[in-house]
């Protein structure tokens, strides 16, 4: 069953100090502290990352020195996502003590970018590419309050709202990762919310 926040904080070292390595997982000594992992804003951020984020980790040799890049970025609409951008920036400053950059890409697109080796490594267990995104098994043991924030972040990134004559308000999310949609459906079920999956035409 779901853990309480205190129980999850206690068990976090056995789950969170692992990151993908080949076919399995290995200990990550630079893991994010439990106090951050159990913060609601962190899981809202994870949800937003699963919808609109990507990570860029690079280690290259430039002459005598090694160059390390650990970039986390979110692609958002500066108009329709204005409230999410404010929350995202505030969360990054508070949780990671970083000052995120706001990079305008096109008329209706911007990127919010920050650098964090620990965050890059943690995000690795959620999938390196869009098609690979998923939820690792231990996420399903999160407290309900953190599941709620995870869903909120994901919906704010990939969700669209509509109305149906019989059921009223509806929310639809689209992803190239079927596994991620199945995982989010499982989280919704844990929260007592029923949902359905369907394929888009031509997808």
Separate helix tally: 7
Task: State the separation between the terminal residues, measured CA to CA.
Answer: 35 Å
Mean pLDDT: 80
Helix percent reads 25-40%
Spatial strand sequence of the major β-sheet: 3-4-6-5
Low-confidence stretches: 14-29
Beta content comes to 25-35%
The shape is: globular
Radius of gyration (CA) equals 17 Å
Helix/strand-derived category reads alpha+beta
Please report the total strand number as a whole number: 8
Outline the biggest β-sheet.
4 strands, antiparallel
N-to-C series of helices and strands = HEEHHEEHEEHHEEH
Features:
four-stranded antiparallel sheet; 8 strands; 203 residues; single chain; alpha+beta
Concise overview:
The chain is of the alpha+beta class.
